[in-house]
Amino acid sequence: MPGRRLTGKDAYHEEPPNARNTLRSIILGLLGARPMTGYDIKQAFDRAIASYWNAGNSQIYTTLKALEHEGLVESEVVIQQHRPNRKLYRLTPQGQVELEVWLQESAPERFTKDEFLAKLFFCGQTSDEIALRHLIEHHQALEAQLAHMEWVLQRYTQRPARRPHLLEYQLLVREYKAETLRADLTVTERAIARLHERIAGQQPSGVAEREREP
Amino acid sequence: MPGRRLTGKDAYHEEPPNARNTLRSIILGLLGARPMTGYDIKQAFDRAIASYWNAGNSQIYTTLKALEHEGLVESEVVIQQHRPNRKLYRLTPQGQVELEVWLQESAPERFTKDEFLAKLFFCGQTSDEIALRHLIEHHQALEAQLAHMEWVLQRYTQRPARRPHLLEYQLLVREYKAETLRADLTVTERAIARLHERIAGQQPSGVAEREREP
DNA sequence: TCCATCATGTAAGGTGTTACATGATTGC
DNA sequence: GCAATCATGTAACACCTTACATGATGGA
């Protein structure tokens, strides 16, 4: 065990200038509510957080190990009879502190990446039909996202809720995201309608085999 | 001209299963409109694309090199008198093809990452005052984004525009993004108002250690 | 029998960010 | 004199994704 006396990270860790560490903070946040396994955390992502952050198992398990190595979380193996054992993680006091620091820091507003918009931006270089297809597919995806959110919302609000105060902000985020989705749906619909019109109006001579309203 | 019969890359390139290559495609898209230098491309990002994609110089210049190495773009050095020379890139026919393929592919809808929402989600574990601060800062950031978009919009639409068809979709994306921003502003304002009320209503007494629910 | 769920991971490789390096010209 | 603009890059490293590996239980 090399260099154990130095409390692990403080001595030669030095927080690289490059680290954003959002995933770590999210995991700390989840563990702040209750002890969880890697599996639980993955489910939390898929059920509640996926629409604005996500992570694969590989990232989750390795991050948990790193956090434990740094003393921010600790684990305990819960032996089970008819299923694989669970490795249950919980925050240490240090982890609690780190979480509080993160919650108080302002989040730097970094641009978000959106491949759909990036592609749409260049659609002037291809045909309107293709652009229309992208818009329609995007519309479907937005509807699916909204549906998923509402589906999960029910499973959430039916149970009495362990800590109503925690739930409040979770619902706020949900509302925020839902509102954004609805706005996106509206703009997308408007764009689809406009494109439909344009395409119908400009090609009275049949191109391939598309039919249109008399 | 080495290995021309094999169309260049097919032979030993093999496209790793892991590659999304969005940045490359965006650069191809920009060069599809007109020849550009790395510097021009960076400006295009900052001016037009930054709200849904961005890249640092390092990524741009290395990607341009990679693209040239693969034969999708070619460059020519333009000598200048009183400034550094410009290395002007343009699409090759191959690059044109790759761009068209990308424009036709459906964009997989991947979740977007939003550190602000992630943090807000956990704000039940800290004080309402801190949450309020985050919301206010976020509101300011949203307004700044909108302002920037409108500022750029003017410089754009004043000039007669080289190719109006290209501009159309660029304006659509802008409209889309602006609409989203306005929706976000509205939800944020609503949340701020609610929080203000709550905070005002619940603490006629001291601030320090709150804890109670009558 | 086949598939989904529970549960924990490793390996490989692409993507993105920050910091650093250079250097002339123009405007305040 | 100082800062911004023009212009091109490299190095280091953190972050994220995909694919792969394992194995029992319980239901259709």
Describe this structure in words.
- A two-stranded antiparallel ribbon of chain A has the order 1-2.
- The first copy, chain A, has 8 helices and 2 strands, in the order H-H-H-H-E-E-H-H-H-H.
- In chain A, 25% of the residues are buried.
- The N terminus of chain A is likely disordered.
- In chain A, strand 1 and strand 2 form a beta hairpin.
- In chain A, helix 2 packs across helix 5 and helix 7 runs antiparallel to helix 8.
- Chain A is mostly helical.
- At the A-B interface, helix 2, helix 5, helix 6, helix 7 and helix 8 of A face helix 1, helix 4, helix 5, helix 6 and helix 7 of B.
- Chain A binds a DNA duplex (28 and 28 nucleotides) through helix 4.
Class from secondary-structure proportions of chain A: mainly alpha
Number of helices of chain A: 8
The side-by-side strand order for the widest beta sheet of chain A comes to 1-2
Give the largest interface pair and sizes.
A-B, 69 and 69 residues
- The radius of gyration of chain A is 24 Å
Largest sheet of chain A: 2 strands, antiparallel
Helix content estimate of chain A: 55-70%
Distance between the termini of chain A: 81 Å
The percentage of residues in β strands of chain A lies in 5-15%
Unreliable residue runs of chain A: 1-13
State the oligomer. homodimer
Average per-residue pLDDT of chain A, rounded, comes to 88
SSE pattern of chain A: HHHHEEHHHH
Strand segment tally of chain A: 2
Assign an overall shape of chain A. elongated
